[in-house]
Each structure stands twice: as C-alpha cells, then as structure tokens.
Amino acid sequence: MASFKIAALQKALDDSVPASELELANKQYTELTEKYRDKLESTKSLVAFKEEASGYQVSLSIVNPFLSQMGRQYFLFILELLMSFFYMLVS
Questions:
Q1: pLDDT at residue 48 tops 80
Q2: Cα separation of 2 and 81, whole Å?
Q3: HEC string for the chain
Q4: Residue 5 lies inside a defined structural domain of this protein
Q5: Would you say residue 39 lies in a domain?
Q6: For the segment 25-42, what is each residue's pLDDT rounded down to a tens digit?
Q7: Is pLDDT above 90 for 85?
Q8: Distance (Å, rounded) from C-alpha 51 to C-alpha 77?
Q9: C-alpha R_g of the chain
Q10: Is the residue at 27 inside a domain?
Q11: What b/e string do you get for 4-13 counting C-beta neighbours within 10 Å, with b at 16 or more?
C-alpha cells in the first residue's frame, strides 16, 4: 500500500510544472496585466480627450455663425466708409 502511494505521489510530482516555469508564467502574467492596465488608462484618456474636443466643436458651431455675421458687418462697415470717402472725393 505504501509503495502504491509513493508511486502515485511520484507520478503527480513528475506531472507537475517545474518552479522555474511557474515563475516565468507568473512574470509573463504580471507583465501582461500591467500592459492591459496601461492600455485601459490610455483609452480612458483618449475618450476624455474626444469628449473635450466634442465640447469644443459644439462651442465653435455656436460661435462660428456669430463670427461670420460680425465679419459681414465689419466688411459692410468698411465698404460704407470707402464709399463715403469715394463720394467725398468725387463731390
């Protein structure tokens, strides 16, 4: 009976993973986990950046028509000044 138990334990020991392979697997797992965490953090930063950029786009879409209108008004003002100046020269 004892020899059977010893043989079974020896077979289990032979089938087990060597400590060096286990340490290597643990190291690879740790590295992979760190890379995954870093990737999640960079993705989170990218999402935040995109949300912020989207907010700027909304602001620009609100301000652009206002700026365009101001540009038109400024152009008309300059045109009126030039026309007035031209009429002053002609008269």
A1: yes
A2: 113
A3: CHHHHHHHHHHHHHHCCCHHHHHHHHHHHHHHHHHHHHHHHHHHHHHHHHHHHHHHHHHHHHHHHHHHHHHHHHHHHHHHHHHHHHHHHHC
A4: no
A5: yes
A6: 889 999 999 999 998 888
A7: no
A8: 39
A9: 38
A10: yes
A11: eeeeeeeeee
Is residue 8 situated within a structural domain?
A: no
Distance CA 84, CA 11 (A): 107
Count of residues for the chain?
91
- Sign of the four-CA dihedral 50, 54, 55, 57: positive
For residue 59, give its domain range: 19-90
d(CA 31, CA 29): 5
pTM above 0.70, yes or no: no
Tokens 């032979």 map to which residue?
A: 14
Portion of the chain with pLDDT greater than 90, in percent: 13
Q: Which residue has the tokens 């290597």?
A: 24
Q: Which two tokens stand for residue 45?
A: 């930063």
Work out how many domains the chain is built from and give that number. 1
